[in-house]
């Protein structure tokens, strides 16, 4: 199991993306990390990342576990399905947010792949492949769970199974189709059972 972090394992809304874009000068609609990497001036790029890191840490301190996130990860682990995290965020912000989880910690995840760990971020599949390597599985054996099109694109491009977490909002305008759509994480174990039956 490979989970996105913000909006998947944490409740949606901690990160204020419009505010981040304004703070770093990123045009609306453009992915923030890709914009920062396009900056030619090294000092400007370093300062923009410093601002981003600070805003991510502030958001992490305000974050809360998503509904049934902890129970779902524990239930899947009890079935022998190790969990990993794949995030476009910094490792320090993921660690900070995990401190807000009552029963989950960094040690409960067999792999945590953040933006420092791969050069090309989701929707590129590099992070999925790196997580698969750390988990000891082929990418085709992973189930990638996320709340955003980048998560599904990365999983599909890596050859993994994909599950979209809708969080109460029907998906619209997706360029790729996930293998399954769930409204809340508590539905994930049932989806995994159906995937197993389909692949058997």
Which short descriptors sum up this protein?
alpha/beta, Rossmann fold, 2 domains, 8 helices, 10% strand
Describe this structure in words.
- By secondary structure, the chain is of the alpha/beta class.
- The chain has two domains: 144 residues, HAD superfamily/HAD-like (Rossmann fold, 3-Layer(aba) Sandwich); 46 residues, no CATH class.
- Helices cover 43% and strands 10% of the residues.
- It contains eight helices and six strands; from the N terminus they run βααααβαβαβαββα.
- Strands 3-2-1-4-5-6 form a six-stranded parallel β-sheet, with helices on both faces.
Quick structural overview:
Helices cover 43% and strands 10% of the residues.
Ordered list of secondary-structure elements with their pairings:
Blueprint: E1 2-3, H1 17-24, H2 32-38, H3 42-62, H4 69-78, E2 84-86, H5 91-98, E3 111-113, H6 126-135, E4 143-146, H7 149-158, E5 161-165, E6 180-182, H8 188-199
Parallel strand pairs: 1-2, 1-4, 2-3, 4-5, 5-6
